Amino acid sequence: MALLALSDPVANTWERLYGDVLAGVTTTSLYGAKQGGTQYSGMKKHWKSCGESPGEAALRPDRNTLKAMKDWMAYHHPEKYWELYQAKRENGQPLKRSSNERARVFCYQKFGIDAKDFQSGHVRGVYFARRYENTDAFLRGEIEASELKRKHDHSPEALTEYWRKLARKRAKSLMKDGRFSTEGFFLDSILGASWEHAKQM
Does the residue 29 lie in any domain? Predict the structure, then answer.
């Protein structure tokens, strides 16, 4: 999926919807980059490490608590609520990104809660994929979109074949070391299950 996010159909759809060239894509790993590497560490042809996140994201309250916080903001701080949840740019996109995250930080401050007490501490690896040889120059505004030079074949077929080669290599290595497992993921066992059954599992 991470590779297919770089694909031409995704880039074309992005440009059609937002009017911008998709020159690069950023992602984060589930866990820190220093913990034995991540799936992106093995895809260096496309994904480059940018270090790690600081792990300062605020823990998310449950839905009911978040709704109560939003209702409180709307009543007591309507301008801030408008800025985070209603204001739009000219192109229709939200004025502010990560509105729930920003709202949590705002409410914690207003309630006198130290946000550091509610940080996840969950460090993630940060990665960036350049779709063009001169992506950086384009993002700095030094060249026009017409001057972008292809870096790789970003067709779904080419990206899928690249992934297959890596997957074969990984499987052979695991088999050689006796670490290959045929067990599925936990999530596999809840496919098609009802919500109540999935919660019990």
Answer: yes
- Burial pattern 92-107, b for ≥16 Cβ within 10 A else e, equals eeeeeeebeebbbbbb
Give me 97's structure tokens.
């990104």
Mean pLDDT computed over 16-43: 82
* pLDDT tens track for 172-188: 988 898 888 877 777 77
The count of domains in the chain is 2
In a domain, 170, yes or no: yes
Which is nearest to 151 in space by CA: 37, 25, 51, 64? 25
Residues 127 and 167 in one domain: yes
C-alpha distance from residue 93 to each of 35, 84, 88, 139 (Å): 36, 12, 6, 20
Domain shared by 127 and 42, yes or no? yes
In a domain, 191, yes or no: no
The per-residue pLDDT for 35 is: 54
Closest by CA to 28, choosing from 5, 1, 49, 14, is: 49
Tell me if 32 sits within 8 A of 125, measured CB to CB.
yes
145: which residues sit within 8 A by CB, 6+ positions away? Answer: 21, 138
71, 113: one domain? yes
Record the tokens describing residue 58, joined without a space: 């605020």
| Tens-place pLDDT, residues 84-121 | 999 998 888 888 888 888 898 899 899 998 877 776 66
| Contact between 125 and 118 (Cβ < 8 Å) | no
